């Protein structure tokens, strides 16, 4: 049997290999085969919410701005626009009222952006891209009826409230056409990351006629077939073998086509790390965006010039449910904060990063990750912590002595709450067992086991429970847990992308701040008016929500960031957010590929790459 | 006899439809009680968006109405659009993927049948000789080894180290990338069929009618094929029908390891994504194939063994 099979496939593969050899083309076009992820959910710019989808979109489509590599850094430069100016203007926003109608809110010091498009820009089918396309596309993407995950990306634009109905009376975005190549849009408060939003795939223009013709039954249909996919960026889609590969070829209609170096990019669609690595090793793929976790060390050693660890804006953390009753002795929110902080101090983050993560992650001691800018210079993390000097919210515990100090502090905090500590065995004797919830994955499991083992040394029993992804998300969102694994990756380079998730009403408020019993806990102190003195006895809604709201309405960057730092201080004071490490992005790329770059949001850029 | 056969077929078809309806119903109701829904995502959606989506897909309707609609769709095999893969019809997703799984699975199944019959018969007629022992060891190993281990070994040895075949079908023409998956999928059924055939042939060889045939002076090969095979095939037929249905619906592991765009992974992924229409589509496909092939297998069984009555 073995002989038979072997013979057969040797014969078949010989014939296949000879076919491949004969099929080689003479033309010297530059092409790459890369593997980022499996089949994307959608590559309709308005419907995509995935990082791999965004990478496809920055190649296929284009926005008003684009990322380019300048020296060692990334810079946003104008793409489809040739000029964008802004001026102070009276901006009118509409918010839904209790009667189901809309109330006017006037911003006397709002901002009006005027966009001038480049002359002669065209979609891949040769039709011109005009102001109307932007107005149509942004309204389409921001509407609730479309159901895009990222419709909230338009909240900064005036009238950018969710469209509750299909009703014509429902306000659309405050955009106005001046001419075919010029339009304006109004923002209530000029956010410093507006240029990033304008480079964000959700803001890319799409062609109305194509969508009207194809999306008669279901939004996004036009974007599932290369025959109907009309693009506006550096590439056009020439093939989509569903579940297998997407092929992009240079779009000659793109205004900057002369500077696009890579002629053809094939995105292989796969999600098995071992299989993807095998294809990379056999030179079928030139770049891969994931590697099997247990092989990181071996790959780093074997491919020192191809294994890349890049920074990413993301934090791996543990969230505590502030309404959990599992720590019975912690009968007040103050005591509960102490318990949570103590548990956080016991965790050996250094070990987790070095022995489990292994991908160059850095130990986290704040919620907002490394890599985000701060108007005061440097990064946001350089100005975090209670004194604002970047010391974080606890010591990173990177030396034995520092970690021992953290542990000693943790023991002290738990004793203060009233838990009994046996000095002989160096263990707590009456600390209640609790459940640590994580989603099924080897990496999360290893971290969970490490935390369990570490806490066991202190007499604390942790029971691990894993759930598959969707159940896990559901359990966490509904607050049916005590302690859970969590993580967050920024949408754009601004701390609000992290901090806005903990407001009372936020759909991502997994810790349940300001909800249930916590709604009445009037224990917080915050300087919500930045007058140098902290008001005390505030509830979550009166403190955190207010800080976030004020930061959203503050035009002065320095003041805005003061609110944001204050919000993070308050968040970390609860102990309910226990950061473990800041994410990194690991990938492998063949050393003969030059000119490739990636962004801290995880986007990969192949268009300026060449293969030697 | 013909009337009996027709009646039997009708009965089985009706039973098949009932089974199918039960499967759809159970799937539907089980889905409703699994926590999380299609809009449960890491980045929470606003209530307005969720409401709009529920309205679009009729998820705001009472459960019983949704159930009736599902039943109707299941019967005409039209499940609507996927909630996860935006803008794609479930039937088109299934069709695109199923052709890969079907081709690989069917070749693997036929390979398994042929190789299994030959090896099993050979082993039985050479009982306790070296080849019999060797075949038994190999088949035990193939049945015992998990398919992801076998698949990864095949991939690393033949595709990565020896570079005889490509590691993935992306950018490659021809059947090269499909050879290893066929082998990987056929190993288990081959081993299983070999063992079935061996033991049932051994059993048949000891029967009185075989001795009679031998006494009549028939050639050993003729005895084995005409008198022996027919009887030793019975357990294989029982096994082959459901096995065929399951192998042509693809293997999650094999398709992942060899990056085959088959349907196997969707059985698993659709549930993980709470993509209700795709869950319905894949479940209905699997149920339908199982029902059909079990029926075919039963009919074949009765043809091979006329002693079994159609009732």
Give an account of the 3D structure.
The complex is a heterodimer of chains A (612) and B (311). Chain A is an alpha+beta fold and 612 residues long. Chain A contains 15 helices and 25 strands. Chain A has helices at 2-22, 51-60, 131-142, 194-198, 208-214, 273-281, 296-302, 333-346, 349-357, 400-417, 442-456, 469-478, 496-499, 540-553, 557-573; strands spanning 31-37, 65-70, 73-78, 81-96, 102-117, 175-179, 182-187, 235-241, 245-250, 264-269, 287-288, 307-320, 362-363, 421-422, 427-428, 434-439, 462-467, 483-489, 524-526, 535-538, 577-589, 593-594, 597-598, 604-605, 610-611. In chain A, the strands form 7 sheets. In chain A, strands 1, 8, 9, 10, 11, 12, 13, 16, 17, 18 and 21 form an 11-stranded mixed β-sheet that branches. Chain A has a 4-stranded antiparallel β-sheet with strand order 4-5-7-6, with helices on one face. The radius of gyration of chain A is 26 Å and the shape is globular. With 311 residues, chain B is an all-alpha fold. Chain B has 13 helices and no strands. Chain B has helices at residues 2-33, 47-56, 63-76, 90-125, 130-144, 147-161, 176-205, 208-216, 220-232, 234-248, 252-257, 264-272, 276-304. In chain B, helix 8 packs antiparallel against helix 9 (220-232). The model of chain B has no long low-confidence stretch (mean pLDDT 88). Chains A and B meet through helix 1, strand 10, helix 6 and helix 12 of A and helix 2, helix 4, helix 6 and helix 7 of B.
